[in-house]
Design a protein that fits this description.
Layout (H helix, E strand, L loop, with lengths): L1 E8 L13 H16 L7 E8 L9 H11 L5 E4 L2 H4 L3 H15 L2 E4 L4 E2 L10 H30 L12 E4 L2 E7 L3 H13 L4 H10 L5 H8 L17 H8 L8 E3 L2 E5 L2 E6 L6 E3 L9 H14 L16 E3 L7 E2 L3 E2 L2 H4 L13 H34 L2 H30 L5 H34 L3 H15 L5 H7 E6 L4 E6 L9 E3 L2
Helix pairs in contact: 4-5, 7-9, 12-14, 12-15, 13-14
């Protein structure tokens, strides 16, 4: 017997920002496994975990949750254990749908440990009023908590308290007060140097080259040295260097004047982890909150110098197909698009081994990536179909077997009902004892025959399910949606591709989000 453990932690948990797996996840896992150990009926169960670390319970679009539901639909398990119902869903209408309709239909038992809920206690009835009220409270609690947290953070921001998770480059959080900033002895020196060079008339490119020549740490390198376990900047190449972009970001930060700047971005909602940049007029800016690294006068002069450099420049809308995917195969940096791709590390770092002066045209790269991905996904779909066809020919389809098992179970119940009816007739004197015994023995024989057939079908179903690769089947379903799509988007590519590495001479290597056992992904743009 298999049992699914569902574990979820909201993105609001602060511990999530510092560790690859939150402590609360580990605590939930320990609680659920202890519960299984303490109940003998689960001691021999095979445990399968589904984890969503950093996802709201009001949103059903959670990867771990969706994998678990698909696993249950395929008959992978008949028992789900979670900490409480709020881990499963905070929306009382959604959780009610699962408790009253979906799980009973699938024959799945749900246990919420801390709520003392076991769906087996409510067979044939609806859950008690206490469970209904808990689900309603969980839904309102999530929305109410979001509003209260936002109100508290806004209040702190207006008082000039720093509310960010990490201090901006050049500062550290005060150990005595996490809402107060103090200058970082190492990084603040680099910040001052950048502003001095900007005030002398140097461009952002010239400043970047000077910092690379001086071997100064970039903001991401400095951050990882301070917080090696953090996931922030995890996508940044270890060989990254100073560029026009990160120099410009330093010069634009008003915090260096002693001000606290908040509300730059706005959450799209508790169901959506993404943020949108707000207009500067909606930012909360409180001056003179901590020690300044740069005077306000020098900051304004630097803005004039840098913005003058960028006069007439208009940022391109970032909606192109290979956005954030194309990287230099040597240094790992995201390549610059203009509209061909190139590695600009040579502009800032002398004697770099990266492709110098080579242009990788967008049309060529898009053609290679789409063709290679389509070919691989078609192979995945064909392989999945081959496995399913072979299993179906050997044992019948899984759906056919489930329907046959269900029919037999219904017939067994009918036999039990007929046996009770016969006994009642015997008790009422409507039939003799010999007639009752003869009829009972006939029903017992039929039940034994049907039970044996049911056991045989269940064994065949188990063999069929074992012959199927759940991971491959899930990938094949996603692949089929991609192959049927009329237009390919960046979001669709990022669902399958981790990065596209481009090397000298036009060689392209595609790194997928999944294991590719079928073919070599190296291609050539020539």
């Amino acid at each position: 017997m298999k049992v699914c453990l569902y574990i979820r932690l909201s993105s609001a948990d602060k511990d999530l920002r510092f560790k690859t797996e939150s402590e609360s996840i580990a605590n939930q896992r320990a609680l659920l496994r202890r519960y299984l150990r303490e109940h003998k009926e689960f001691s021999a169960c095979e445990v399968i975990e589904f984890v969503d670390d950093g996802f709201s319970g009001t949103n059903g679009n959670r990867p771990g949750f969706e994998r678990m539901i698909e696993f249950l639909k395929n008959g992978g398990a008949k028992l789900v254990v979670c900490k409480d119902l709020s881990r499963f869903f905070r929306d009382y209408m959604e959780i009610g749908d699962y408790l009253e309709r979906i799980f009973p239909f699938l024959g799945v038992r749900l246990i919420a440990v801390n709520d003392g809920y076991d769906s087996d206690d409510y067979k044939g009835t609806t859950a008690g009023m206490d469970i209904v009220m808990k689900c309603i409270v969980y839904g309102f609690y999530s929305k109410d908590l979001s509003t209260k947290v936002k109100t508290v953070l806004t209040s702190k921001a207006k008082k000039g308290q720093f509310i960010g998770g990490f201090a901006p480059y050049g500062y550290l959080k005060d150990p005595a007060n996490k809402n107060h900033l103090i200058p970082d002895p190492a990084a603040s020196v680099v910040v001052k140097k950048i502003f001095v060079m900007a005030l002398t008339g140097m461009t952002t490119g010239e400043i970047a080259r000077a910092l690379n020549d001086g071997h100064y740490e970039t903001p991401s390198q400095h951050f990882h040295r301070l917080y090696p376990d953090s996931k922030k900047f995890s996508a940044t190449s270890k060989a990254n260097s100073w560029t026009c972009d990160n120099v410009y970001k330093v010069i634009r930060r008003r915090e260096y004047t002693g001000a606290v700047v908040s509300s730059r971005c706005k959450w799209k909602g508790i169901d959506n982890p993404h943020t949108t940049l707000q207009d500067e007029s909606e930012w909360i800016i409180v001056p003179d909150c901590h020690e300044a690294i740069i005077s306000l006068e020098d900051f304004e002069r630097a803005q004039s110098a840098i913005l003058g450099e960028k006069k007439g420049y208009k940022r391109m809308k970032k909606d192109y197909l290979l956005r954030s995917l194309v990287r230099c195969g040597i240094c790992g940096r995201v390549m610059q698009r203009c509209p061909f791709y190139k590695c600009d590390k040579n502009r800032f770092v002398e004697n770099s081994p990266c492709p110098l002066g080579e242009r990788f045209y967008e049309d060529d790269l898009e053609r290679i990536v789409i063709a290679s991905l389509s070919q691989l996904l078609q192979t995945v779909v064909d392989e999945d179909k081959r496995i399913l066809d072979a299993a179906a020919k050997s044992h019948g389809s899984a759906e056919q077997l489930r329907r046959s098992i269900l029919r037999i179970e219904q017939s067994i119940k009918q036999c039990q009902t007929r046996k009770m009816e016969a006994y009642e007739k015997y008790s009422d004197g409507k039939i003799t004892r010999d007639e009752f015994i003869r009829f009972r023995d006939q029903l017992v024989s039929e039940t034994e025959t049907m039970t044996a057939e049911k056991n045989s079908l269940e064994e065949r179903l188990a063999l069929l399910e074992q012959s199927q690769s759940t991971e491959l089947h899930d990938l094949a379903e996603s692949a089929l949606q991609f192959l049927k799509a009329t237009d390919v988007t960046n979001e669709m590519l990022r669902g399958f591709i981790d990065r596209v590495l481009v090397f000298t001479g036009g060689r392209v290597e595609i790194v997928y989000q999944f294991n590719n056992p079928f073919e070599d992904t190296a291609q050539d743009t020539k």
